[in-house]
Amino acid sequence: MNPAEWPKNIRDAKAIQAVLRDRVKIVPIKKLPHFIAAVDAAFSGENVIGAVCVYSYPELTPCEEACAVTEGYLPYIPGYLSFREGPAIIDALKKLKTRTDLVLFDGQGIAHPKGLGIASHIGVILDKPTIGCAKSRLVGDYEEPGDQKGAYSTLRYNGKTVGVVLRTKDKVKPVFVSPGHRIDLQSSVEIILKCTGKYRIPDPLRRADILSKEVKREINRIL
Predict the structure, then answer these.
(1) Which of 57, 95, 153, 167 is paired with 190 by a 20 to 30 Å CA distance?
(2) What is the mean predicted confidence (pLDDT) over 4-17?
(3) Cα(30)–Cα(201) distance, rounded to whole angstroms?
(4) Distance (Å, rounded) from C-alpha 115 to C-alpha 16?
(5) In sequence order, what DSSP letters do the residues of the chain get, joined into one string?
(6) Residues 122, 132: contact at Cβ < 8 Å?
């Protein structure tokens, strides 16, 4: 989507969401990724800062980073985060020289009221495998997983399994993993676990979060 196509009001956002959700494909990933991009966003006034960090997989060697700053097209509305963060994230991804095979998002995939969280939304636009790894639940019911790293329980919404509640570190709060596009749930869980080191949040996503905040501080300093 180019800037002219991003909606400026909730009515248009709803219409786009309805079209894109029918294009989401939850299927086994065709091949394991060699390079993974992780993205996150921060906000400074009306500006949205998109940050992307590229890592080799499964070695998790840092390879490349990029950022982009755009104007926010919509205010924050629950369930419509992708319309606020998406333009900056896509612009940051376009700056990469590395050809990435999969994108991790700090947000939801299909575990979303309309089945189209930011990982699914941007995955469809890019036509690329994506995974949502959120710090909190947006929809669904679950039982608490076991205390050990790798333990998980299913996240169900409207009678369907839409993700898992995954323990990425012993005896810490779990994360909420859901496939975004062109990947299935089992592969999503395996990749998230392999991307997780000593912290609760997968290393590439943690770095993307840090990078977005570094850029935000620099913008605020200048302003």
Answers:
(1) 95
(2) 85
(3) 25
(4) 13
(5) --GGGS-SSHHHHHHHHHHHHTT------SS--SEEEEEEEEEETTEEEEEEEEEETTT--EEEEEEEEEE-SS---TT-HHHHHHHHHHHHHHT-SS--SEEEESS-SS-STTS--HHHHHHHHHTS-EEEEESS-SS-B-PPPPSSTT-EEEEEETTEEEEEEE--STTS--EEEEEEESS-HHHHHHHHHHT--SSSS-HHHHHHHHHHHHHHHHHHHH-
(6) no
Angle of helix 81-94 versus helix 118-126 axis, rounded to 10: 40
Q: Which two tokens stand for residue 163?
A: 């993700």
pLDDT digits (tens, 9 = 90+) for 162-193: 999 999 999 999 999 999 999 999 999 999 99
Q: How many residues does the chain have?
A: 223
Separation of alpha carbons 116 and 38, rounded Å: 18
Q: Which tens digits make up the pLDDT trace of 62-120?
A: 999 999 999 877 878 888 989 999 999 999 999 999 999 999 999 999 999 999 999 99
Q: Number of C-alpha atoms within 13 angstroms, CB side, residue 186?
A: 3
